[in-house]
DNA sequence: CTGAAAGCGCTAACAG
DNA sequence: CTGTTAGCGCTTTCAG
């Protein structure tokens, strides 16, 4: 294996100084004659020179990379399709603009030990927080204290932080859309089935449902369950049905949970939506699987990622975030599961 | 915002040389008295010093980071649950050992333009290739030519490459398990529904099915379709049914496709598995949704990621990969959709 | 138009 | 036990 060529080896080969090579590499037109440029380019080609990003970073203090910390109690932190699509959007938009994405999955409370935090080698950090609002704010403050631009996903803005941008889809608005859909028929009692981990987006959905249901005099109960497998969801909802009887509406925190709910209702001889209306949340391109088709909202996770990347790129360019907050509107996906 | 402290500022504060601080930071016991160590640690604490990874990298030529290139024609390259779980396993195992994961989604043929390739800042590269075998081999050679340790996912080994490790689940073996399950009843004709993008893992599955079916005198047809949405899958399989009639068995390239197949069969008044047996592939923790429950194999995607990370860590430690190939065995998930 | 040189933050060899 | 120093590869200023 030959040594990797450096500016110096190229300079040697082309009989010029490394400063000249640097100019050519960086496409700096001023101060290089066409003739030398050609020669240098030939040497670069011949040696197969590729610039060393580390040397460049050390000098320029820019790393062409963005860090993403996903705070999640599950080691399979990427299992959730929302996260998955967000990462894809972020990564694509970054890659397209010559930036890399440094991915970290971190357990709640372990953020300060993560090497993303302990050693900086990125131009900006993205944070996908989970936990209670207090825990999330603590995480935001920790990362913000690093003095790097920060993008926070899915959470509501915090006042006292500098150089931070909040990007999320309009989860409360999406919930209102679904609630209004459901309310096309008269209802008395609704149940929302949520995971036992507090997620900011879910808080917003609860708020959206509550707003509409309360205004229409509909009682809203919350049922919490472990969402890691459909078994746990089933027993969670089954417990509620046994204790409180059958409600008019079941809204799932997401599509997976809603499908599990439809399953157990069907198993008990109930018909959706005749006996119970069911709605999901966060439809993704590949989710036309349930019967009856789920009434849900189309997730903007991918766009959230793209928006964040664009905001970061722009921030790096101009020294500040243009907007402090981006809220992407959601769209109803009508289905046969409601109303 | 205060300047970020460096070795120098800590040294100044503690009235020692930067060499001494460096030793303390790196936990080098030899040559530092307990007293100075304490003083230095106090200075580090007070200044909030964190080592700069870039300076360290430049000097030590190690980056504590691994690159992952996912070659996929879809911009939503992370949509596939296999990829998702693989990334999670890889990322967790790497993070746990102080390594970062630099993620790149790249379009087929664009690999050489990717900045992961063009600028090295990682200690090893992982490649998740797609396309024809030729295209995949070209990609492997390209990356291998960088002179960095390389891990290739899901593909069969290539002979002439140095410092490469191949990690995959036993897709052919998994297909044989399913085929044998299906063959518990007599069959004449089977159809495999596959995506129009060639994936190495799918080639292996086809080979596994073919082996068993051929040995038992069962004809195996292939139907190709766009797998990006269930609509396209439905029309693909519908076309086959119209042209060739109903086969005894339909095997899907993955669970999503199999579920779409069950849908369309049911819609046509056919009963699974009475009229047609259906099998899937790559069950993930959250895939108990179809009725009848799908006969499939449990994917080892997460373990593939973990295995790769461990292999890389070991390679970086010892200078060479211990094994050239890791093939993780698959396990049947029996279901009611077959036999 | 071209080159010499300083220095980004760090490690490690070597000198004291 | 501690400090001095020479770079790692690069960008950029300043002189020629």
UniProtKB/TrEMBL annotation, chains A, B:
PROSITE patterns: HTH_LACI_2. The keyword Flavoprotein does not apply. Gene3D superfamilies: 3.40.50.2300, lambda repressor-like DNA-binding domains. Residues 5-60 form the HTH lacI-type domain. InterPro entries: HTH_LacI, LacI/GalR-like_sensor, Lambda_DNA-bd_dom_sf, Peripla_BP_I. GO terms for molecular function: DNA binding. Pfam families: LacI, Peripla_BP_3. Keywords: DNA-binding, Transcription, Transcription regulation. This is LacI family DNA-binding transcriptional regulator. The lineage of its organism: Bacteria, Pseudomonadati, Pseudomonadota, Alphaproteobacteria, Hyphomicrobiales.
């Amino acid at each position: 294996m030959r040594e990797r060529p450096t500016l110096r080896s190229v300079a040697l080969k082309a009989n010029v100084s490394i400063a000249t090579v640097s100019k050519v590499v960086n496409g700096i037109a001023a101060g290089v004659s066409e003739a030398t440029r050609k020669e240098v380019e030939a040497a670069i080609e011949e040696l197969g020179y590729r610039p060393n990003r580390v040397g460049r970073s050390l000098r320029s203090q820019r790393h062409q990379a963005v860090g993403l910390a996903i705070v999640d109690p599950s080691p399979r932190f990427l299992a959730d399709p929302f996260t998955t699509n967000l990462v894809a959007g972020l990564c694509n938009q970054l890659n397209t603009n010559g930036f890399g994405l440094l991915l970290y999955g971190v357990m709640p409370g372990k953020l300060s030990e993560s090497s993303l935090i302990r050693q900086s080698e990125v131009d900006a950090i993205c944070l996908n927080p989970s936990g209670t609002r207090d825990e999330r704010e603590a995480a935001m403050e920790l990362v913000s204290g690093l003095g790097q631009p920060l993008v926070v996903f899915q959470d509501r803005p915090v006042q006292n932080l500098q150089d931070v941008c909040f990007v999320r889809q309009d989860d409360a608005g999406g919930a209102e859309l679904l609630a209004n859909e459901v309310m096309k028929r008269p209802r008395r009692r609704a149940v929302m089935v949520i995971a036992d981990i507090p997620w900011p987006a879910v808080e917003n959905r609860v708020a959206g449902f509550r707003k509409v249901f309360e205004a229409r005099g509909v009682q809203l109960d919350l049922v919490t369950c472990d969402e890691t497998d459909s078994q746990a969801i089933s027993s969670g909802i089954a417990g509620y049905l046994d204790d409180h009887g059958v409600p008019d509406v079941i809204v799932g925190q997401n599509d997976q949970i809603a499908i599990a709910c439809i399953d157990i209702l069907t198993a008990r001889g109930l018909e959706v939506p005749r006996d119970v209306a069911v709605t999901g949340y966060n439809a993704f391109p590949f989710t036309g699987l349930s019967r009856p088709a789920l009434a849900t909202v189309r997730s903007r996770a991918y766009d959230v990622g793209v928006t964040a990347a664009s905001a970061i790129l722009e921030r790096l360019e101009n020294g500040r975030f243009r907007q402090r907050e981006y809220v992407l509107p959601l769209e109803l996906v009508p289905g046969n599961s409601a109303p």
